[in-house]
Design a protein that fits this description.
alpha/beta; Rossmann fold; 5-stranded parallel sheet; 5 helices; Bact_response_regulator; CheY-like_superfamily; Two-component system, chemotaxis family, response regulator CheY; phosphoprotein
Length: about 120
């Protein structure tokens, strides 16, 4: 069973994305910001994909992605950004830092699931 880390400061969004992913048969771990996300990343040994917001307290999504990509073990883990920030500059920055897919909220659940399945092969 594939394991997904959801990083978002909104409990509502975390729960909604978790519900969608669990319904598709994925195992889910949740984190409330980038710092929490990194802690979960280092303690979980079997994460297959990350879904992350950008605007979060303590550590934003851009910094989180940069930190993930700097770790040799996690360089290849697929990352989907799910953010309200839909400006071209934000999208370019997210992809430039190493996100595989950048989606703007509110994203259609089917499209999110399609992207997850595509990245997981």
């Amino acid at each position: 069973m594939k394991h997904i880390l959801i990083v978002d400061d909104s409990k509502t969004v975390r729960n909604l994305v978790a519900f969608i992913m669990k319904r598709e048969g994925f195992r889910v771990t949740m984190a409330e910001d980038g710092m929490d996300g990194l802690e979960k990343l280092f303690t979980a040994t079997d994460l297959d994909l990350i879904i992350s917001d950008i605007n979060m307290p303590r550590m934003d999504g851009f910094t989180f992605i940069k930190n993930v990509r700097e770790q040799e073990n996690f360089r290849d883990i697929p990352i989907i950004v799910l953010s309200t920030e839909g400006q071209e500059a934000d999208i370019q920055k997210g992809i430039g830092l190493g996100a595989n897919v950048y989606m703007v909220k509110p994203a259609q659940p089917e499209k999110l699931v399609r992207n997850v399945k595509m990245l997981l092969g």
